[in-house]
Design a protein that fits this description.
Shape: elongated
Order of helices and strands: EEEEEHEEEEE
Number of helices: 1
Distance between the termini: 47 Å
Structural class: mainly beta
Helix content: under 10%
Largest sheet: 6 strands, mixed, barrel
Number of domains: 2
Amino acid sequence: IPCVVSAWGAWSGCAEPCKTTHRVRKRHIIQEPRNGGEACPALEERAGCLQYWAGQGAECKQALIPALITTGGFGKARKKRAAADGKQRAGYCVEFQLMAITPGCLHSHHSYTRWMRYLSKGHRVCVECQHPALNPRSHHCSGDGTGSKKNQLLQWQAVGNPRCQGTWRRIRQLDTCSCPSVHSFLFI
């Protein structure tokens, strides 16, 4: 008789606000295996999580939140959707210097993660903040380094590969974006 488990329960909230952490979902055993039946599968799953709001609905301090980024090419499709919705808002770009990069950025072989190979320590990158990542109240993207001290190391993480992350220093904010295509990224 094989093990029988319940369906997955709902995901929990993030373990901690204002930092990259995890959430959990669980299931339970309905019937234990007997007489050499198939063993029970895992009863708990974890997934990456980032909560941008602290208790009582207060927004997390910008400098504490790692920036979530993807390739700048994704922005063209995003702009078309926003314009079709009539929600196009003026965005901005932030220039950063990459200070540290994990090896996980180079070891991903999926087609949707090839852009991560253009991340190189010491290079300057340009990251665009546009709708819907642009918060309508604060007029900033989470993790853009607004309010950080000069030369403060800020964290970033690539969407699609949690092993690809690192640190950068904010150089300047640009009100009009003219990012080079190779080193152009997008806040998520």
